[in-house]
Amino acid sequence: MKRLIAIILVCVLLGGCSAEARKTVYHMNTVMDLKITGRDADIALARAETILTDLESLWSVTAPDSPLSRINRGTDVQLDPANRALLDKAEALSRRTGGAFNPKLRCLSEVWGFYNESYRVPTDEEIAAALKEAQWDLGAALKGHAGAKIAADLQQLNVHSAILNLGGNVQTYGTKADGTPWQIGIQDPDGGNYLGVVSVSGTMAVVTSGDYQRFFEADGVRYHHILDPETGYPADSGLRSVTVICADGMTADALSTALFVMGLEEGSALWRESNDFEAVFITADGSIFATEGANLSGCTYEVISR
Amino acid sequence: MKSKYLAAGLGALLIICLAISFLLTGGTPAVRAEISSEGQVLRIVDLGIDQEFTVCTDSGSNTVTVKDGKIAVTDADCPDGYCMERGFCDSGTQIVCLPHRLVIRFLGHQEIDGISG
Fold first, then answer.
1. The complex's ipTM?
2. Looking at the domain assignment, is residue A172 inside a domain?
3. Concatenated DSSP letters for B9-37?
4. Looking at domain B32-107, what is its CATH homologous superfamily?
5. pLDDT, tens digit, for every residue of A124-146?
6. Is the pTM of this model over 0.90?
7. Would you call A200 an interface residue with chain B, using a CB distance cutoff of 8 Å?
8. Are B70 and B47 in contact (CB under 8 A)?
């Protein structure tokens, strides 16, 4: 009888652990896939959606009444300490990258038409004027922060593992049912296939910034969406994309943008003086460079060492 | 004595269930694509068969073409046309038409958990 009870218990436990919830949602102007496994999967999914909706309404640059838009208009907005800390963290990341990640480029993105898809090449005067304005736009860090925030929330629940793909920003949580590491492909900038696969364990963010994600053409010239805060033009550092692997989602997101702006040399130098991230660079000629801890496989690449 | 049989029966059932679940998840990967909108799967497409069809959602329509094992959105009445810019592909990140909330996802690449890009 005891054995019977034990077997039933094992069945119940196995059944309870394998509950999986999956949903495609549309937030932050992108498509997001959420896949959560564990007994609280359904609750976790609902809470993840709430987190996304809340972040979106709080930090929207396009909604005129969002707290961020009011801050940008100079209104004195009382923010929660946690939200205040998010702005401080964005500024710290900007300092860390020598300004290559800049969370205050709203006016610059606006003159390029990136908010309403009315793309145009602004005049030098417009760019100079836009660079003088320092209005918040957390777009280059918000999806990464969202992934990290959802991952932190999953910790409060009975969730075994999760994989969140927030518009190309991948956030893993916990360990897969079979115990093997997460395998995350890196998108080929020319479309089609993924170029290589990074292997990560546990809770980690894998974020890619690339010139192919958002762009427009004018007079035969291609203009992409990753703007260099120094020139005001799309960053021209000889890279097609940068992938950053980091335990903190917001840092991964901001660093992928920053390294893209900095280029291979400067980006490698930032990696050498840091110990909290790994990176994969794809250059304009299609060569791949990966830092020595990046765990990249499935392609030929050069290793960047300390 | 009766409980022993019951236990053996349950054990056997458990093994059969596990075997079936392994068979279901570990089959040979056929290259297929799943077309969905708002989380609703609209169509599963075998990329081995050349075809062309139009997918209509409440927001508009997209013409999808399958040729030489690859799939692309070849015509759409969406305002930005991003879905068409991706061109023909058979793997990688999903093809998205955000205005129409249409997503084309590649199936049969089980060794990958996600794609960053």
1. 0.82
2. yes
3. HHHHHHHHHHHHHHHHHSS----EEEEEE
4. N-utilization substance G protein NusG, insert domain (2.60.320.10)
5. 999 999 999 999 999 999 999 99
6. no
7. no
8. yes
